[in-house]
Structures are given as C-alpha cells and as structure tokens.
Amino acid sequence: MIFENYEFNEEYPVIFIGSGVASLSCSIDLSKKNKKIIILEAGSKKYDEESKSYFDGEILNENYFKLNECRYRGLFGNINYWYGWCKPIFEDVLKKWQLGENFSNETIKKTSEFLGIDHNFKSENSLNDYENFEIKFSDTNNLIKRLYREVEQNKNLSLILNSQVIKIELLENKYELTLIHNEKKIKIICKFLIIGAGCFENSRLLLYSKIHSINNFLYSHKCLGKNFYDNIQLESGEFVADQNRFLSYFDKNFKNSDNELFQLRNKKLIDNKKSLNHTVTLTFKNHPDKLKDFVRKSLCVSSKFNDKISKKLNDFLCLRGILINLTPSERNNSEILLSNKKFDKNGINQINLNYSWRNDEQLRKTYENVTKEFLKDLVKHDLGRGYLFNFKKYSDNNNLPGSSYHPSGGTCIGSNVSNGCVDKNLEVFNHKNLYVLGSSVFPKGVVINPTYSIVLLSHRLADRLSSLI
Q1: DSSP track, 294-358
Q2: How many percent of the chain have pLDDT more than 70?
Q3: Are 107 and 226 in contact (CB under 8 A)?
C-alpha cells in the first residue's frame, strides 16, 4: 500500500530505502513470500521543483549532466526517465565480479517477467571476432502502471512517501534510521536494511552516516564514493557499405535492422587486452535525402534522373555513423564526494562529483583500436569503406559530458573492504544484514543499460533474504 502520511512504530524487521526499480523488484518479490516490508521514499507521487532542488550538486574537473536533471526524487525513481532498453551484463564481466553463472533460471525469468519482456536474449558471432547481441525493450508506461497497482494492493508492503532518510547509525546488531517524514524528524530501528536509493544517493547517505557516526559505523570503509563512472558515448567514425552484404555478415538472425538498431563488440580485442569493454551501436535507417544531395552535386543532371539514381543507390548502400560506448579504465579516479553545502535546515549535504574521462589513455586507445579494426574488416571482406574521427576533437570540447545517463559505482562489489564496499551477495563488508542495491554496486566494465542487471541482482538478493528474514 502507498501512504503519504504514516504513523511509525519504533522497530521493523525489514526496511528498504528508495522506491526505484532496485528496491521495488526485491521488495515485491519478498512480499510475495509473506514477508512484511517497509519502503521509505524521500519524494512524493509527482516530481516537483522543490524536490528537484535536493539533488543539486557541484561538478568538479570535467563537465557532466546537471545532477538535478539526471536523478529523479519521487515515486518509482528513475523508471520515470528510462527508455526501456534491456540487456544483461556480459558473462565475461560477471566472471570478473565473481558472479559468473550465479543466476538461476528462475531468477532470470522473474527479472524478465517484472520488466515485461521475453527472457531469452540472442547472440551470435560475426567474422569470428564480433559478438552481436540482442536488445529488448520494456514498455515503461505499462511497467509504471502495473507497479502502481501492485504496490497499492499489496498488504505486505507499505511504501511511505515524503520520508527522507538523513542518517543511518549502527546499534549493536540493528540499524537506527533518522528520517524526516512530512517535516517531522523520526527515529526508527530495523534488523535488515536494504539501500536502493540510486547511484548518487547510496554513496551520499553512507558517506554522511560514516562521518556523523558515534559507533564507528562504516569506519573501515575507504572505498565509499570511489570508482564512480558513466558509459562514455561518442561518435568514432562513418562508413558506407553494401547493405545486403553487410547484413548477411552481421545480422543473420536478429533482424535488428527492422528496428533501426544494431549492437556489437569486438571480443578478440577485449580478450587480447587491446581494448576495454565496449559496444558499437549502428542504426539502420536509409538516407535518401543525403544520397540525392550526393548525386546532385556529383552529376549535375536533371532532378528526375537524380531521384532515379539515388533510389537505386539507396536500395544497395547504407551510409552509417559509428557510435561507440566505452567504460573507463581501472585507473580512472572519478568519485562521489560530500560537499560542505547543505540542502536545508536538516543539514543534509549536497554532493560534489569529481568526474574525468578525457585523459584516460586506455579509453582513447579503445576508441581508436575498435573503430580502426571495424573499418579494416569492412575493407578486408569487401563490405564497405569508412574513416576514423579524431578523438582529440571530443576531448577538446569541454561542453560535452561524454556520457549516457548511466551513473554507476560508488559502493562497488569487491573481494574485501580494501577494494570494495559490498561482497558478491551485495552485503556491506563488516556489517551484517546491511545491503546495497542498484548500479552503485557495479564495478567498472558495464557498457550497456544497467536496468535489467539491477533487477536481476535485486531478485537474486530477494531469494537470499527470503531464507534469512
């Protein structure tokens, strides 16, 4: 059930912070197993300018999106911004995270059912080196409507709006939350606490709680806020190809060209450590006007004849841009910091985001190596011709965020407290029954939309918690 006003008790068994896709997928799953759940959401049912101001912050170093524009403080969180793209994290990335082959078929099916998509994702290899993979689309409008009905009618789940958690403290084997509910300060206690408030908020809340703790809460954690990243998305070149021959090599089964979208990555370069993880996105949309203009300028003949020639060309050629998505290298030092500035009288700190990608040498090499290899393969197999854009023209453009609205990291999965914040089960190191959900747990290496994998990890955690609570 959804509450805008709520009479709190002193103690609860399970509390979730945040009402985005991470918390909802996990909490709804648990509620179906007859577990009583409380969800605390800082915002209200609708987004407003006052609520937006809570997400103000400062950008240090390089340009990034305005922090109050790429975060949603309100019911269902960033689902309200999401375009619906779904793709699981690549298996080789999961193995680096110690999560390879760690998801049951039931968990995968629940994730796809939650998002309203088929659970089978196709993939194929092209020219021995390229992995082509399928993207699915979730209908976000239907998802939001379905979630609202499901939460509103769920008697095991209480979603409480206008409840901003400002601090967490450790009390022996339980957690004390200080929150503001409709301008009233309240303290409540829980045994199991799951933080799924979004990438920036997860770090901000834990950093603030660590600084103000009187019981050494999180004292051993040096990685909080560290290893922030976003997927860098840049145009890296253009090419012209024989359309039918190109699709016969790269799109045999998916027919993604019908959806004007095509995705691949060069697995050989990744395996040989000549590139970071990456994806290349191509759109398959004809450009008759561009070809008409080319014919007009080149041949200078009658307009009807130009139209006839350009139609013939358009049936056989595809003129495409190469859009490359990159993950920063391990040496990238972007991080989330607490600002000295406060939101309001409650003393909630804003954040400073120290963001950097332009001088990442491995990122530049990946940009060049992947694009050059792709263009060489076009020539080698007589598919087409193209050219590489200069990376420097992007790195010199200070107005370019160079990101795809996929903020990740800050509370990353690690093998111990010296290199991460949570273990592979998403439990915070040295703090039993405290968990973190969302893209903030992703170590570097993700170059696809994170939502599907967020939900997958959330359902996996629900399976674990159901036997512990």
Answers
A1: HHHHHH---HHHHHHHHHHHHHHEEEEEEEEEE---TT---EEEEEEEESSTT--EEEEEEE--T
A2: 89
A3: no
Residue 458: what residue type? S
- Radius of gyration of the chain measured on its C-alpha atoms: 24
β-pairing, 317-326 vs 278-282, is antiparallel
| pLDDT value at residue 126 | 82
Q: How many CA atoms lie within 13 A of 414 on its CB side?
A: 21
Residue type, 42: A
Selection from 352, 78, 341, 59 nearest residue 204 by Cα: 352
* Three-state DSSP class for residue 94: helix
Phi, then psi, of 359 in degrees rounded to 5: -100, 15
Range in 78-92, 114-128, 248-262, 346-360 with the lowest mean pLDDT: 248-262
Q: Where does the chain hold its CATH 3.50.50.60 domain(s)?
A: 2-120+135-228+333-348+407-466
Out of 3.30.1460.30, 2.60.40.3880, 3.50.50.60, 1.10.10.10, select the CATH number for domain 2-120+135-228+333-348+407-466. 3.50.50.60
- Neighbouring CB atoms inside 10 A of 319's CB total 19
- Distance (Å, whole) CA 25 – CA 13: 18
Using one digit for the tens of pLDDT, what is the confidence trace for 215-239? Answer: 999 999 999 999 999 999 998 988 8
Helices marked H in 74-139: 91-96, 105-115
